[in-house]
Amino acid sequence: MWQLLRKAPKRFARSMGYCRDAFGKMVEEESFRLELIALFIVAVVMLLCGWPWWKKLILFGGCLLIPLTETINSAIEDVCDLITEEKNDKVKSAKDKGALAVLTAIVFNALLLVALLLMED
């Protein structure tokens, strides 16, 4: 048990390095950059609006789903490209499903925003 706890900081630091590398690769993608800009704008607007903290937290948490699903979609696309770069219906289907996940997160956030706007404090 103690040995596991002793190694935890090194493992955590290594994991953070992997995250930094992945973030650097994601920032190269235009859609991810646009999503980060939108997330920043939403965060600034939420800080300035008079909503209660719980509404801000719910909306910001929902907005985090968009870059999360974009990252998963990119991972799916990377694996598909690793398997084959030739045209393949199954690869296209996998990539399309990843794109659908991103669209679903965006639609979810639009509906969440409408619900929060209609909800009384």
The proportion of residues in beta strands is under 5%
* General shape: flat
- What gap, in angstroms, lies between the N and C termini? 47 Å
Total beta-strand segments: 0
What oligomerization state is this entry in? single chain
Mean pLDDT: 93
Low-confidence stretches: none
In short:
This protein is mainly α and 121 residues long. It has 4 helices and no strands.
Structure explained in plain terms:
- With 121 residues, the chain is mainly α.
- 87% of the residues lie in helices and 0% in strands.
- The chain contains four helices and no strands.
- Helix 2 (30-48) runs antiparallel to helix 3 (53-83).
- The radius of gyration is 19 Å and the shape is flat.
- The protein starts with a helix and ends with a helix.
What descriptive keywords fit this protein?
flat; 121 residues; 4 helices; single chain; mainly alpha
